[in-house]
Amino acid sequence: MEGGCACGRVRYLAEVDSNDAYLCHCRMCQRASGNVSLALFGIEQAAVQWQQEPDWYASSVIARRPFCASCGTSLGFQYNSGTTRMDLTVASFDDPSRFVPTSHFGAESIHRGWLDTGGLPEHRSDEYQPLVERWVKAGAAPE
Prior knowledge:
Blueprint: E1 2-4, E2 11-14, E3 20-24, H1 27-33, E4 38-44, E5 48-50, E6 55-57, E7 63-67, E8 76-79, E9 85-89, E10 100-105, H2 129-137
Parallel strand pairs: 3-10
Antiparallel strand pairs: 1-2, 2-5, 3-4, 4-9, 6-7, 7-8, 8-9
């Protein structure tokens, strides 16, 4: 499967053999992503071929995170030593739809109100007229 950052500067090819992903709620992932959790897919480092080497951020004394310095996309997580595995962010895959959350990690920092949002109203971005008008005015198709 292919993936990469929002601007396309950093791209990867991953040999994916599972659909199992997880949500990490630890404070380090929350801060690194600017979100309440981070959807991650665990994979062997050797199964990831970076077509363009990412930038790396030393997020702690035990780990680092691949990202794109041009657009800021978070691409994953990797311990500095002691394992041959790493994680890629689910949303950085070109088609993340095959992945299924199978567990939670960092449960001590879960924000439970953000887990079950099934009853909240849903709005489609392609039907939100002010957004569509901005795309049209910019001379581009809505994304």
